[in-house]
């Protein structure tokens, strides 16, 4: 029963990912991406990782995708952008890269076929993860917090608007740009 | 009760990773490239969680948390860069933006 659910969720994940990378409208692609992430969250629950599944929904499908939605709203991408995107996505542009990726995937599949079959029947509770996280991995947690702080400062610095040209002092523009 | 072979979990991760890689290669819009990068990071996280389930250890899930943090920081900086580039050039075409001069 669980195996059937796994394969259904896996099929949904693959189909929605294919649709996400081929759409011309950014908002549609984003919605398919959210579906893909949610089906991966279902897979996490099925293979006994409830904490990872919950975080996938909250952080990936929730927070990160909301950031994308905000940016799409700011860029105000409409029909003209979708038409331009259609021009950029020509057949000659995607055939060769897709073929090369297919070769890499075939190699991965071949390697994975070589090993003995092991079934996934673990159930790792959030408690176990939490104990490890604040025990041996405490330094990793601190590093993750530093990474997030750096990301916050970087995003704030890069994302703010330039001051209007008349308030800029002469000569500083070249220095800040370099 | 649970009879999902580990290869199938890893195969799904490999498939999603390849799809994300194709997305990075074929799209010229930076927004779509960032979305494809998210797909690739997510596939790597899936491989970690599958490994955690295989060896019944929580360490793989902790690595998944680290990947999640990395993805959040990466997407924040990437989208801020994207907004700034759109303000300066009024386009998201990577070929136009490839000169990297202010």
Count all strands of chain A and give the number. Answer: 0
Q: Enumerate how many helices of chain A there are, as a single number.
A: 8
The CATH superfamily label of the largest domain in chain A reads: NADH-ubiquinone/plastoquinone oxidoreductase chain 6, subunit NuoJ
Oligomeric state as shown: heterodimer
Helix content of chain A: over 70%
CATH architecture of chain B: Orthogonal Bundle
From the coordinates shown, what is the CATH architecture of the largest domain in chain A? Up-down Bundle
Q: Structural class, judged by helices and strands of chain B? A: mainly alpha
Q: Tell me the fraction of residues in β-strands of chain B, as a range.
A: under 5%
Unreliable stretches of chain A, pLDDT < 50, 5 or more residues?
172-178
Instruction: Identify low-pLDDT runs of chain B.
Output: none
The figure for the number of domains of chain B is 1
- The CATH class of chain B is Mainly Alpha
Membrane topology (chain B): Multi-pass membrane protein
Subcellular location (chain B): Cell membrane; Membrane
InterPro entries (chain B): NADH_UbQ_OxRdtase_chain4L/K, NUOK/Mnh_C1-like
Protein name (chain B): NADH-quinone oxidoreductase subunit K
């Amino acid at each position: 029963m669980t195996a059937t659910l796994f394969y259904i969720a896996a099929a949904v994940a693959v189909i929605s990912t294919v649709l996400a990378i081929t759409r011309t409208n950014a908002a549609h692609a984003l919605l398919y991406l959210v579906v893909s992430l949610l089906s991966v969250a279902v897979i996490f629950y099925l293979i006994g990782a409830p904490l990872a599944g919950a975080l996938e929904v909250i952080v990936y499908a929730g927070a990160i995708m909301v950031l994308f939605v905000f940016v799409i709203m700011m860029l105000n991408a409409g029909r003209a952008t979708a038409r331009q995107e259609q021009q950029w996505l020509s057949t000659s542009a995607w055939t060769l890269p897709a073929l090369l990726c297919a070769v890499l995937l075939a190699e991965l599949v071949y390697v994975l076929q070589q090993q003995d079959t092991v079934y996934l029947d673990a159930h790792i509770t959030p408690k176990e993860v939490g104990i490890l996280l604040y025990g041996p991995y405490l330094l990793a947690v601190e590093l993750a917090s530093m990474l997030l702080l750096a990301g916050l400062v970087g995003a704030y610095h890069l994302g703010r608007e330039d001051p209007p040209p008349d308030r800029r002092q002469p000569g500083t523009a070249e220095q800040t740009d370099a | 009760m649970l009879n999902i072979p580990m290869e199938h979990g890893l195969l799904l991760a490999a498939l999603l990773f390849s799809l994300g890689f194709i997305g990075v290669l074929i799209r010229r819009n930076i927004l779509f490239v960032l979305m494809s990068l998210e797909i690739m990071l997510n596939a790597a996280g899936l491989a970690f969680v599958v490994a955690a389930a295989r060896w019944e250890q929580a360490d793989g899930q902790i690595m998944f948390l680290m990947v999640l943090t990395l993805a959040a920081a990466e997407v924040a900086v990437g989208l801020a860069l994207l907004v700034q580039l759109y303000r300066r050039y009024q386009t998201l075409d990577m070929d136009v933006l490839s000169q990297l001069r202010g």
